[in-house]
Amino acid sequence: MGGTMNPTVIGWLPGEPLLPAVTDALAQATLVFGAKGFAPLAERFAPNAHFEPFEAWLAQLPERCARAIVQGERVVVATTGDPLFHGAAAALLAHFGPDAVTVLPERSSVQLACARLGIPWHNATLVSAHGKVREPWSWKNAPHHPLRPVLVAAAHNRSPIVALTAPGAGATEIASALTELSLAHRYRISVAARIGLDGEALWRDLEPSQAAATAFPHPHIAILTSTTPGTEAAFGWDDDAYAQRQPEKGLITKREVRAVALALLALTPHDTVWDIGAGSGSVGLEAARLTPEGAVWAFEKNADDVAIALTNARRFHAANWTIRHTKAPAGLEEAPDPNAVFIGGSGGELAELLTYCWQRIAPGGRLIATFVTLENLATATAAMTALDAPWHATQLWAARTKPILAMHRFAAENPVWLVAATKEPS
């Protein structure tokens, strides 16, 4: 082992012989932490050690290791495959430092799955769907569901996507969610199940409809390969690409305004965004494309518009976007603190809404609100001044060409004012 004060993290593959360094570490161990399935391994190779399963308290593993080491234990943490790939070693390295943890990896399950299925993975997007699954993926839980990383990768046209799965977040559930996101036609799904264990099985190039109807044994790796590349731009989609309320077509933040608003929001990939008064969902859905590691929470008081926004979310594969039918600020308490807030409609509660959002927005966060009436512009600037928020305003008055006989003219859109403020960093 790396020394009495160093925890050792080992990798093991079912059905494979242990590496000599791993057997040495186990032979010297007095305490072994690992999943319940590692008990026979510890009993055979760590005769002087007490074995303790860690499933019930895995998040406390670094602290448990530290206490055991102080008490003189020689600690080994047993994991499957490579402990540095979505494994226990990451938390231990963060806690103890790289010089105080010995990592003895095995081949990863990803390597073996790709080898079994004959899929090169040098350019793969590697994701994990591990996590506590309380309910199937839906638009309501999209930002925090364990399937989110898999589905966001698919929405961004990644291929191949190699996913570590878990019960309730496996290939079956991935396939069902791809269908809901209008992505089923783009992907085929291959599965390598129970690698190295009794009942090992492989499935190749299933259509998502086939995968959704198949019960795959766990543990398994799901690999998504693209058959049809996506062509969506990151943002700036044509107004006509969106479903809009009829017969009042046009109740949408226009393309030019969306582009400026998104620029002012200055989004980063990990941002949490609020889209208040979402309407057809256009700003929030384009924000979702720009925040693949973050999430967008949309809020809309009109039930018909909520339904339209959901139609657009399916159309644009918004796997990290959710919407609530509510009149803000009611309902905002459910969402995590935002890094960026876009207000496209206030339902008559503008000053209260701006105050609440400014209180909740993270340090360094950006708030953008759009207006078409002077009265709301005046209310907004007064509210932001009262909050001592460093605001500025932009007037946007776009015009688009339209045919007139054999020629073209410019037809002006309604002027829009954008009020923007950035909260001081902490």
UniProtKB/TrEMBL annotation:
Q: Which GO terms describe its biological process?
A: cobalamin biosynthetic process; methylation
**Molecular function terms in GO for this entry?**
protein methyltransferase activity
> Can the keyword S-adenosyl-L-methionine be found in this entry's annotation?
yes
Origin species, per record, is: Hydrogenophilus thermoluteolus
Domain of life of the organism encoding this protein = Bacteria
Kindly give the InterPro entries that the UniProt entry links to this protein: 4pyrrol_Mease (IPR000878), 4pyrrol_Methylase_sf (IPR035996), 4pyrrole_Mease_sub1 (IPR014777), 4pyrrole_Mease_sub2 (IPR014776), CbiE (IPR012818), Cbl_synth_CobL (IPR006365), Cbl_synth_MTase_CbiT (IPR014008), Cobalamin_biosynth_MTase (IPR050714)
Q: Name one Pfam family in it.
A: PCMT
Q: What is this protein called?
A: Bifunctional cobalt-precorrin-7 (C(5))-methyltransferase/cobalt-precorrin-6B (C(15))-methyltransferase
Q: Which residue numbers delimit the Tetrapyrrole methylase domain?
A: 20-205
Sorted alphabetically, which keywords does the UniProt record give? Cobalamin biosynthesis, Methyltransferase, S-adenosyl-L-methionine, Transferase
What pathway annotation does it carry?
Cofactor biosynthesis; adenosylcobalamin biosynthesis
